[in-house]
Design a protein that fits this description.
Number of strands: 13
Strand content: 25-35%
Number of domains: 2
Number of helices: 10
Strand order of the largest sheet: 1-7-6-4-5
Order of helices and strands: EEHHEHEHEHEHEEEEHEHHHEE
Distance between the termini: 13 Å
CATH superfamily of the largest domain: Thiolase/Chalcone synthase
CATH architecture of the largest domain: 3-Layer(aba) Sandwich
Bound molecules: oxa(dethia)-CoA
CATH class of the largest domain: Alpha Beta
Shape: globular
Length: about 300
């Protein structure tokens, strides 16, 4: 038994914030942001629950099923609408689901963590047959728009996938990691805004993600040449390039949306997945590698046979 992705859905708020818009209020430039981060526009003004409902609805439609067919909702987010109940409860109500629901917070690695957790639960006897795995974040609600080191990076969005028991779609290997000593380099306190030591996060991320990818491929007994599609967390195009260089994965296998979405945290991998699906590359038996990293620090890599 395995698990396939039966449907993907995404949502981005309508409001677009361009580099030019940021130039007007910050000591920054379109050229600097493009060159140092690879971002041109990002979407803002979103609400985590609403984005999650839209993406979830989309994924359910794409899977050709109804809300009643979902056996479990797993939401990853680090920008919940409130302390409690979990934002998954609001999404549960918004989608009219009839199943269990819970939140996961592994920051930008949330979707990849959620994928592994959902997969494991689906393997249990009597476990869910279909899980709606949603990553939704509205980081614009946590950004200090006077801080040029973070205001240029983050945007809002959600991505969802219906994971379904099937004979195809094997999880070949995974790696979950965390280093809580690194919490001070990227955090957001209750009522506060995002604080980030960008250069430190950059360096640690490249090292952690490259190591995690190498460990995962080794466990799967695969080489970089075996991988067909690479979906990396969309934080900075230079991080993606550095990880590719270190791991010998060619950039041509990566599918990226960062230019138009910025860093959407846990939503970035499913947004990149939808982009790859639109290009027609997510065909059965393709080897797909996903890797996310973020505050914690946390990181998670998985390699699946699509
Ligand atoms: O989702 C996971 C978490 N987030 C990340 O993965 C983000 C990781 N970090 C990054 O993406 C990059 O570190 C940034 C894009 C945040 C910054 O790029 P950088 O190349 O690491 O720049 P830096 O912080 O080393 O700063 C280089 C220079 C500095 O000026 P001096 O000291 O050389 O005079 C900064 O003050 O660039 C300056 N700078 C800016 N200039 C124009 C920093 N931010 C900006 C800006 N516009 N927005």
């Amino acid at each position: 038994m395995a698990v396939r992705i039966a449907g993907i859905g995404t949502s981005l708020p309508a409001k677009v914030l361009s580099n030019q818009d940021l130039e007007a209020t910050l000591d920054t430039s379109d050229a600097w942001i493009r060159e140092r981060a690879g971002i041109v526009t990002r979407h803002v003004g979103g609400i985590t629950s609403q984005l999650g409902i839209e993406a979830g609805n989309d994924a359910i439609k794409a899977a050709n099923i109804s809300a009643d067919d979902i056996d479990l909702l797993l939401l990853s987010t680090s920008s919940p609408d409130q302390r409690f109940p979990g934002t998954s409860a609001q999404i549960h109500a918004g989608l009219g689901l009839n199943c269990g629901a819970f939140d996961v917070n592994a920051a930008c690695a949330g979707f990849a963590y959620g994928y592994v957790a959902a997969y494991a639960m689906m393997m249990l006897a009597g476990g869910p047959k279909r899980v709606l795995n949603i990553g939704s974040d509205a980081l614009s609600t946590l950004v200090d728009y006077d801080d040029r080191s973070t205001a240029i990076l983050f945007g809002d969005g959600a991505g969802a996938c219906v994971m379904e028991r099937h004979e195809q779609g094997e999880l070949l290997a995974f790696d979950l990691g965390a280093d809580g000593d690194l919490a001070p380099i990227l955090y957001c306190r209750h009522g506060g805004t995002i604080k980030m030591a960008g250069r430190e996060v950059f360096k640690k991320a490249v090292r952690a993600v490259a190591g995690s990818i190498e460990a995962t491929l080794k466990r799967a007994k695969l080489t970089p040449a075996d991988v067909d599609v690479v979906l990396l967390h969309q934080a900075n195009i230079r991080i993606i390039e550095s990880v590719c260089t270190r791991t010998s994965l060619p950039m041509s296998k990566t599918f990226n949306v960062i230019e138009t979405t910025g860093n959407t945290s846990t939503a970035s991998i499913p947004l990149a997945m939808q982009h790859a699906a639109n290009q027609g590359v997510l065909e059965p038996n393709k080897i797909v590698l996903m890797s996310g990293f973020g505050a914690g620090m946390t990181w998670a890599t998985l390699v699946v046979r699509w």
